[in-house]
Specification:
mainly alpha; Growth Hormone, Chain: A; two-stranded antiparallel ribbon
Length: 477
């Protein structure tokens, strides 16, 4: 049994997972708190803010595959991924601090500050996260051990998201900060002071403790980006996974963006932060159970079950309103049951389709795949943030006042109705995913055969015989 096929020490898993905890600051605060902070406290127009957030995700659609490709082709004595993780984290910390601390100027200055800050933050966040996530599939090739590895990583992400979600309330309570415009600025100042060194420190630990495996085959022939992308689209399991995940993510990002607006203006409640904490705590608590379930029924079936639970919960949310905070809390917990699985299982499945790509191309191209994967995540977030906020502005949303019935109904549709429909579509697409534990084992055997110069059959298309000499030449180049 090789190092790739065996167990990964828990300490190494923890070191790999640690940046996910700190980098979660770019999640909930940027997508949930910062938009409301900039519209209601700083004074930026909500439609303009939505446009900026949408455009920065289009920008990410270009940078993600580029950083993925660059990290695949990078050659240093420190490896392909680790230099990006360590150096990029410094810039992430700098521009996060900038974004969380806007100047006290007019709306025009604040808008420019936000635009520059958000573009720079996401540029360097991409420079860190694409190589960081690309490192994961290289750590182990074991089908079930990958689920454990990515569950710990994504569990750290959920825990970090929980901490980020709770941080405004905690900072406000610890420092007795009032809930007024000056107080809101003070809250985000302290959050940035806490998180900036945390981002740098956890990324440095990961880069130091998690070494890239020397036996992993790397691309040796530089081809055009477009040719590489065409090769990726020929990986049918990946395209099925990507389509299902993207559609589901679009639906899931709408409630992530609109929860503060929904709780305040539909439920008429002031406990949005409590509901967020309930959601993330439930996700963490049930994540170990999903690992065990996936070992019994397979990753695909466990993922389908988690999507079904989420969809059922949000169908219920659509039918509640003012005074139904307790019912909403119960549905939030139900949705949280499947939350961890919807993060960890697709990540583990993605590592398996990268192995299938290695069988077809004789190369390890994690960066290429993670780059495309991140395009999916970020474009889904762009649709969620940009469309959600823009539609609210179009139907007449005005901050800090009682909303019209039209705005309230629009919030219900965007927050609960649309996500339910999108998750249902994703569920039926995911049914076609073909790789299970048995097939994955055959893929790894076929990869080993081709590397040794022996031709092997494609487990997903047994009529196709793959030439072993190509991989043998690649391995010795």
């Amino acid at each position: 049994m090789t190092a790739h096929e065996g167990k990964v020490p828990f300490k190494r898993k923890l070191a790999y997972a640690s940046p996910a905890f700190a980098l979660a600051i770019v999640g909930i605060p940027v997508y949930v708190y910062i938009p409301k902070f900039y519209t209601d406290t700083v004074g930026i127009d909500i439609a303009y803010l939505g446009l900026i957030l949408f455009s920065v995700r289009i920008f990410d659609a270009v940078t993600d595959p580029l950083f993925g490709r660059w990290s695949d082709l990078t050659r240093t004595r420190f490896g392909r991924r680790r230099p990006y993780i360590a150096a990029g984290s410094i810039f992430v910390a700098v521009f996060m601090f900038m974004l969380f601390n806007p100047p006290r100027g007019g709306a025009a200055l604040s808008a420019v500050w936000f635009g520059v800050g958000i573009y720079a933050l996401f540029l360097f966040w991409t420079a860190v996260t694409v190589p960081y996530e690309s490192l994961g599939p290289e750590i182990t090739f074991d089908y079930n051990e990958r689920t454990s590895l990515f569950a710990i990583r994504d569990g750290a992400l959920i825990a970090g998201t929980l901490a980020a979600a709770a941080s405004p309330a905690l900072v406000r309570w610890i420092f007795s900060i009032p809930q007024d415009p000056v107080g809101e600025r003070t809250v985000y100042f302290w959050i940035s002071v806490i998180y900036a060194p945390m981002v740098i420190g956890t990324c440095a630990w990961c880069a130091y403790a998690v070494r890239e495996m020397p036996s992993v085959s790397h691309p040796t022939v530089k081809t055009s980006l477009w040719r590489d992308l065409r090769k990726t689209t020929q990986n049918r399991p990946f395209m099925i996974l990507l389509a299902a995940y993207t559609i589901s993510a679009i639906g899931n990002n709408l409630p992530a963006t609109l929860i503060l607006y929904y709780v305040e203006y539909v439920l008429l409640s002031s406990y949005a932060e409590v509901f967020l904490i309930l959601y993330f705590v439930t996700g963490i608590l049930f994540l170990p159970g999903w690992i065990r379930i996936s070992r019994r029924v397979g990753k695909k079936n466990a993922w389908l079950a988690s999507m079904a639970i989420n969809t059922g919960a949000f169908v219920g949310v659509f039918f509640i309103g003012p005074g139904d905070a307790w019912i909403y809390g119960a549905l939030v917990c139900l949705s949280g049951v499947g939350f961890g699985a919807t993060l960890a299982l697709p990540s583990s499945i993605q590592a398996d389709v990268i192995d299938y790509d290695e069988l077809l191309t004789c190369q390890r191209r994690e960066g290429q795949y993670v780059g495309l994967w991140n395009i999916s995540k970020k474009l889904a977030a762009a649709v969620g943030v940009g469309t959600g906020l823009a539609v609210l502005g179009w139907v007449g949303y005005q901050p800090n006042i009682e909303q019209s019935p039209r705005v309230v109904f629009t919030l219900q549709v965007l927050y609960a109705g649309v996500p339910s429909v999108f998750n249902l579509i994703a569920f039926f697409i995911a049914l076609a995913y073909p790789i299970d534990g048995h097939i994955h084992g055959k893929i790894r055997e076929a990869v080993a055969s081709r590397k040794s110069g022996v031709s092997a059959r494609d487990p997903l298309r047994p009529e196709r015989l793959l030439n072993g000499r190509v991989c043998e030449q690649e391995a010795t180049t």
